Structure formats: structure tokens, C-alpha cells
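Human:
I keep going back and forth on a fold encoding question. Comparing notes only helps if you start from a blank page. Show me how you would write down a chain together with its backbone fold. Write it directly below this note and I will take it from there.

Assistant:
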Amino acid sequence: MTSLIKNKTLKSSVSGILILLIFIFCQNAYSAELFSDKEILDIKNEAFALYSTNNKKEALEMLERIPQNRRDEDIFVVIGNIYDDLGQRSIAIENFNKAVNISKKPYKAYYNIGCILLKKKSYELAKKNFEMSIKCNKDFPYSYYNLASCYIANEQYSKAKKQLIKALSLKADEKDFYINLAYCYKMLGDNKAALKIVDSLNKIKS
């Protein structure tokens, strides 16, 4: 008799869980339909405007109103950036990975994961993400720059130099690219080339 009662309790618990899961699914499906495509776009644009003016928490609150299945790559990336800014890196990476899963060329997501890993001094993992970012978009200069930063951290100045030259070919007015390239030349013992890069930097400043 005791085992029979336990069995009934187990069946009852399983049924309760199934009902709860169905309810959650229906609620999510219902909430996804609450917003039209135009409303989603309006929320996204307003949130991005808030984010660009450093109103991060307000932007996050707006973006999290959008159901998960209606979020695009850019929404996941911005949510990830906000969580990173708030110091919640694990949640940030979770959102960047969601962006990777729904995009064909998620260079922004890989780039941002790489930046977090670079801050954590996980240079090899950071390098892999910057390389994936470059594979997705060969014209994004900051992936080359941060890949170079990984090489500099490991004192691989020749490899860093190559990446910085590529970054400068894509964005010739970025001062940090010149500074790091001059440093690489200096560490490689080519002071003449380092001074030439510094002169180029001074021309940009003027």
C-alpha cells in the first residue's frame, strides 16, 4: 500500500510539472505576440539611443521587455555590453553566445567575447575569438588591434606588428594603433621605424 501511494504521488508531481511547462510555454508564446514588428523596432531604437547616451540601466530594462525569440544579434550584443559594463561578465558572455547562435557572421559577438577574455588575461581564448571575428568580417579594424594586444601580452611583437599594420590599413586615424605599432617596432629593436610611426601619429594629432 505504501509503495502504491508513493507511485501516485510521483505521477501527480510529474503531471504538475508538465502542466507548469505547458503554461510557461503558452505564456512565452503569448508575450511574444504582444509586440508587433514595428513596436519591437521602436523599443530597440529607443533603447539603443539610451545606451549611446550612457543610460545603460534604462536601456537594459527596455531591451529585456523584448521576448527572447524576437531578439536579433544587435539586441543580444548590446544587452551583453551592458552586463559587461555592469561587471556581470558571465551574463554578458551568455548573451554574446546567443548572438553567435542566431547570426551567420557574428563578428561583433566574437569581438566582445574576446574583449572580456582579454580583460581577464585569458590571451589564448581571446585570440581565438578575435580570429573568429576576423573570419566573419575582415574589414573590422578593432579585431586586428585587439588580436595584436594578445600578441603583445605574450611578447610576440612581430605577430602583433602584422595585425596592427592591417588595422591601420582599415582605419588610418586611430591613434592607439600607431602607439602600439611604434611600441612593437621599439621592442623589435627598430627604433628608426618606431620614430617614423610616432611622426605619423603627430601629424594626425595636428
Q: What stands out?
A: Confidence is low (pLDDT under 50) at residues 1-7, 25-32. Residues 182 and 197 are 6 Å apart (CA to CA).
